[in-house]
Design goal:
alpha+beta
């Protein structure tokens, strides 16, 4: 969508107008490899649980698991969504993820390019 199209959409009457000011959320999840990361990204975007997912390769994670120090290469997902879709996004990631205890950590976007934030909101609120 062009910037002009986004502006026209945002200005048009919309029965879910509250969604246009809803908090944008960045949700993070680490994946064991690029294949799993791509599958998860495609699922949550297709299902309108996230508008966009960045897949960041080259991540190294160090943690304790089962009492042993682990050091693994992972792919980090950065999923853009809104507050009202976070629970569904979290549940879907947990359902699809191969890890016994999948990471899903979310933070609120405190600001940024408002047109981009509106695009994020639009991408997940169409299912509402």
């Amino acid at each position: 969508m062009t910037v002009q199209g986004l502006r026209a959409y945002a200005a048009a009457p919309y029965s879910h107008a509250k969604h246009m000011t809803e908090k944008v959320i960045l949700a993070f999840s680490s994946c064991p490899n690029a294949t799993v990361a791509q599958q998860l990204a495609e699922a949550v975007v297709t299902e309108k649980l996230a508008t966009c997912v960045n897949r960041v390769t080259g991540i190294s994670s160090t943690y304790l698991w089962d009492g042993r120090l682990q050091d693994d290469s992972e792919v980090l997902l950065i999923m853009k969504t809104v507050e009202s879709r976070l629970a569904a996004l979290t549940a879907r990631v947990i359902e699809l993820h191969p890890y016994e205890l999948p990471e899903v950590v979310a933070v609120e976007a405190s600001g940024g390019n408002e047109e981009y934030l509106q695009w994020v909101r639009m991408g997940v609120t169409r299912a509402c």
